[in-house]
Amino acid sequence: MDYVFDTLVALHLLSLGLAASSAIGAPIIMSRMRGATPEGAQMLRGISARLGLNARIALGVLIITGGLMVWERFGGFEGLGVWFQVKMALVAVVVVTAIVGAVARGRINPRIMGTITSLSLIGIVISAVLTFN
Question: Using an 8 Å Cβ cutoff, are 101 and 59 in contact?
Fold first, then answer.
């Protein structure tokens, strides 16, 4: 049994869950701020900031564990095919969306950013299944 690889897979999947839940939850919380009292809005901003931090940490863990798993199991990225390239392109979309969201906080509709991230995450999971199955 390959304990290193199994540990990397577990960390990868836990991070995927954290990233996905943060990407789905943050826009919902942001949309509630419009009708919130000043105290409620402040509380929601704190929750949103924490979800953003969680998502960034999860994204970093996903990138590190993903690279390590490919290196551990396949010895590199060669020969993984077009679905792996699609997966990596979608990972790039998520990274760019995270950067834009952090830089342009408050100037970009969080619902749009959440939709882009959520759809990209769905595509990442589908392309990963097609790559490694």
Answer: no
Q: Tell me how far apart the terminal alpha carbons of the chain are, to the nearest angstrom.
A: 19
Per-residue model confidence as pLDDT tens digits over 76-113: 888 888 999 999 999 999 999 888 988 887 788 877 88
**Residue 10 confidence (pLDDT):** 96
Copy the structure tokens of residue 7: 């540990």
The candidate with the shortest Cα–Cα distance to 30, out of 17, 16, 49, 58, is 49
The contacts of residue 4 (CB under 8 Å, 6+ apart) are: 72
66 touches 87 (CB < 8 A): no
Q: pLDDT value at position 14?
A: 95
Q: Is the dihedral of CA 43, 93, 126, 75 positive or negative?
A: negative
Task: Please report which residue ranges of the chain form alpha helices under DSSP H.
Answer: 3-32, 38-74, 82-103, 110-132
Please give the model's pTM, rounded to 2 decimal places: 0.81
pLDDT of residue 27: 78
Return the closest-CA partner of residue 98 out of 67, 62, 128.
Answer: 62
Q: Please give the tally of structural domains in the chain.
A: 1
Which range marks the domain in which residue 88 is found? Answer: 3-132
